[in-house]
Amino acid sequence: MVDFVEALKKFVNVEYETQLREIREMWRQPLAVRVAEGKAIADVEVVQASEDQAVLRCSENLSKFREGDMLLLNRGDPRQEPRYPCILEKERGLELIVSPDHSSFAGLSPGKGWVLDENACDLRDLLLGALDTLAVSQKKQECILGMLCHHVCPQLSTQREKEAARLADHLERILGLNTSQREAFIHAYATENYYLIQGPPGTGKTRVLAMIATALAGAGQRVLVTAFTHRAINNALRTIAKTTRYPHVFKVGQQRYDEDLVWEGGQVPNYEKFVHSPYSPQGKGFIVGGTCFALRTRRLGEVEFDTVIFDEAGQVTLPLAIAGMLSGERYIFIGDHKQMAPVIVGEHSEEWVTRSIFETLFRHAPGTMLDITYRMNAEITAFPSKYFYGGRLHPAADVRGRRLKLARQPQRYHELLDPERPSIFAEIWHTGRGMRAPEEAELAAGLAAEALACGVPASEIAIVAPFRAQGRLIRKHLQDLVTHHDDSLGDIVVDTVERIQGQEREIVIVSLTTSDPGYAAQCAEFYFQPNRLNVSITRPRVKRIVIGSPLLFRAMPEKAEHRAWVQHFQALHAESDVITISR
After folding, report:
1. Could you tell me the pLDDT band of residue 483, with boundaries at 50, 70 and 90?
2. I want to staple 346 with a disulfide (CB 3.0 to 4.6 A). Which of 17, 18, 275, 537 is the partner?
3. Residue 505: helix, strand or coil by DSSP?
4. Are residues 95 and 116 in contact, defined by beta-carbon separation less than 8 angstroms?
5. Which helix (H) or strand (E) holds 71?
6. DSSP string, 253-290
7. Is 329 helix (H, G, I), strand (E, B) or coil?
8. Going by C-beta distance under 8 Å and a sequence separation of 6 or more, which residues neighbour residue 3?
9. Where are the alpha helices (DSSP H) in 366-504?
10. Which of 391, 421, 388 lies closest to 406 in space, CA to CA?
11. What is the CA radius of gyration of the chain?
């Protein structure tokens, strides 16, 4: 057991040290290189500045930065003063709002000539502290390490199973539950230690989470809902409030992460600390959302929960999961290890430390897989079901035959946009392309524009690309088309795979981009990862158009595992409706 904890401590330290080393190496690069790599934004102007917030403006943003990222505002050399560690709060096109990290913006005044660089995020103390706590708690060790070492299986209470069955009967009448959802609900409610629920795309996992959390809180439990991201936590809390109307639901966390807690008819309250809420730590029957990090601070540290529900558990590392598990008695893990995995930056001799909590437990206690998708029609579902879910994922009866609705016949790309051909591979021959493929960018933008002209709302169109450089090129083509089409072209989502998970659209266009087999082989671990492919192709409801050059399939990565991954792409091509695009 000691070796297990020490291995996870080493993992935490290696991850941070690797992140810090890579960032410092990037800081030594010329500004043009940092910008090209998406690690910096040049020509930044400080528009407004106060001690606790600054409004910045840039002429171009080609960065990989996301809201919540740690950044460093500097004069061009991030190793030299003046420099201000900060957090990206909001991104509004070319306007950025940042707050200071652990200090203030004292001395910062409006002016030009600034640069934003990536900065390191050090959360080691919280994670290592959690592992130290585990090491000295015999009771928690027996439960948590017993689970993680595959010695402890889920244990269900017969009495609670009967209670859950009665509740499920009621929920079935008012909200509807399919067979797998019913099983997941009953077993999660009845568990005396832990249970897993695998939620493939569109299977209603967040709705099931809402029912479970509400039922447990209704029985008097203190329930925590946590996840890797604030977005996932907020989505879960919003779904609980909207679906069940349970009144005792709130979040504990910084106010800057509360924007999407609003729903049609209400808003989930957010408190900076639990003590600011109207509830007592010893109270009963409430549902609170918060990060695992908050549990290791004064925000939530004083509350002991009866049940901790992890959403998106396929993205939660073992140390982070342990930080959450220390605050609860029972655990429900909801996720999908076939979608996005944790982001790992370091090299680790022991592969098991890099797995998510969900994948770790799934190997010996897979729980229930939700097996009916309410998102994808039959043609869209077929490939992911066969290659990622053992043929067990099926479309619901009312979505099986759904088709793309067009207000008029397309004037361009008639074959590609044909509603009766839901799963298309647009074969476009090009060669030597790495992170940018102008041929695919032009086609993707043109398809989106034509779909919009045919009556598909911009909010129901998304374009996915593996590289931000390709995404920028696609957006540029869309901007060029705005003069000829509806201004709402700018509302079409163009993003990377990482940021599209959890979203869905009527039509999704996937640009594979790369046509250099050597380049693809070099970045095979990233590019051909099956989880990324699965996420990309399961966003659409009724129409999927994958654009790519068949030269990609000639990639021969060094590792046999990666070569097997390439075969997934070949299979997608073979099992799609292939249309060759002449140039």
Report:
1. low
2. 18
3. strand
4. no
5. strand 70-74
6. S-GGG-GGGEETTEE--EESSGGGSS--TT--SEEEE-
7. strand
8. none
9. 378-388, 438-453, 468-482, 497-500
10. 421
11. 24
Look up tokens 């098991």; give the residue.
352
C-alpha distance across the termini of the chain, in Å? 62
Under DSSP, the state recorded for 145 is I
* Domains, in order of start, for the chain: 1-123 (2.40.30.20), 125-370 (3.40.50.300), 378-581 (3.40.50.300)
Q: How far is residue 73's CA from residue 113's CA, in Å, rounded to a whole number? A: 10
Residue 167: both structure tokens together: 């509740």
In sequence order, what are the beta bridge partners of 223?
287, 307
Question: Which residue(s) pair with 310 in the sheet?
Answer: 226, 333
Asked, as a colleague might, if the bond just before 82 is cis with ω within 30 of 0, I would say yes
pLDDT band at 149 (very low <50, low <70, confident <90, very high): very high
pLDDT score at 338 = 98
pLDDT over 80 at 93, yes or no? no
Return the structure tokens found at 350.
């022991």
Cα 276 to Cα 290: distance, rounded to the nearest angstrom: 14
How much is the average pLDDT of 99-120?
93
What is the phi/psi pair of residue 120, to 5°? Answer: -80, 150
Virtual CA dihedral for 343, 130, 272, 335, nearest 10 degrees?
40
Average pLDDT for 526-547: 98
Per-residue exposure over 64-93, b if at least 16 CB sit within 10 Å of its own CB, e if not: ebebebbbbbbeeebeeeebbbbbbbebee
Cβ proximity of 388 and 546 under 8 Å: no
Tell me what the mean pLDDT of segment 230-240 comes to.
Answer: 94
Residue 310: is its pLDDT beyond 90?
Answer: yes
Q: Can you read off the two tokens belonging to residue 566?
A: 């390439």
Report yes or no: 351 and 513 within 8 Å, Cβ to Cβ. Answer: no
CA angle 122/123/129 to nearest 5° reads: 135
424 falls in which pLDDT band (50, 70, 90)?
very high
Tokens 């800081």 map to which residue?
27
Classify 207 as helix, strand or coil.
helix
Query: For 307-316, what is the mean pLDDT?
Result: 98
From 264, 512, 504, select the one nearest 402 (Cα to Cα): 504
Nearest Cα to 174, choosing from 116, 112, 244, 127? 244
* Angstrom distance (rounded) from CA 453 to CA 296: 52
Alpha-carbon span 262 to 238, nearest angstrom: 7
Phi-psi region of 62 (alpha: psi -120 to 50; beta: other; left: phi over 0): alpha
Pairing of the two strands 53-58 and 95-100: antiparallel
425 within 8 A of 573, measured Cβ to Cβ: yes
Asked if 278 contacts 300 with a C-beta cutoff of 8 angstroms, the reply is no
C-alpha–C-alpha distance, residues 324 and 117, integer Å = 31
Alpha helices, H only, 191-229 = 205-218
C-beta separation of 202 from 373 below 8 A: yes
